[in-house]
Amino acid sequence: MSHFSKIKVKIHDEECLLKALDDLGYRYECGGEIRGFGGRRMRVDIAIPQEGGYDIGFLREGEEFQMVADLWGLKVDKDEFIQQVNQRYAYHVVLKQAKTQGFKVVEEQQAEDGTIRLICEREEEVEAVS
């Protein structure tokens, strides 16, 4: 019997997910296995090793990722972990979309409650004069 639980998270972009994990200081492996109760293992797309032998992983299912972990022995609060990853993920998605649409960040502010405010402006194309 498997003790691994899959938790739906609205994460689609692997590049932005990896940047979010970097920002939060998590060490991860792309491809690999996570560990759970009784030495059980599960293959995942992104594995985040944790102390105590109960790891966190992300598994791509269709167009989005799901978080996978054996929640019984997990040493981190899953809700807090998901909230932190979601916030940093959203930040990187906004940056990526802004850049794709020709914007650059000119100012970034973070409030005491963790809210991030980005001010962007459209980059102007400069013509080279010969």
Task: Sum up the structure in keywords.
two-stranded antiparallel ribbon; alpha+beta; 130 residues; single chain
User: For the largest beta sheet, what order do the strands appear in spatially?
Assistant: 1-5-4-3-2
How many beta-strand elements?
7
Strand content: 35-45%
User: What letter string, H or E per element, gives the SSE order?
Assistant: EHEEEEHEE
Short description:
The chain has 130 residues and is of the alpha+beta class. It is built from 2 helices and 7 strands. Helix content is 25%, strand content 38%.
Describe it.
- The chain is α+β, with helices and mostly antiparallel strands.
- It has one domain (5-122).
- The protein is 25% helix and 38% strand.
- The protein contains two helices and seven strands; from the N terminus they run βαββββαββ.
- It has helices at residues 14-23, 78-100; strands at 5-11, 29-35, 41-48, 56-61, 64-69, 103-110, 116-122.
- A five-stranded antiparallel sheet has the order 1-5-4-3-2, with helices on one face. Strands 6-7 form a two-stranded antiparallel sheet.
- The model has no long low-confidence stretch (mean pLDDT 91).
Annotate the secondary structure layout.
Layout (H helix, E strand, L loop, with lengths): L4 E7 L2 H10 L5 E7 L5 E8 L7 E6 L2 E6 L8 H23 L2 E8 L5 E7 L8
Antiparallel strand pairs: 1-5, 2-3, 3-4, 4-5, 6-7
Helix pairs in contact: 1-2
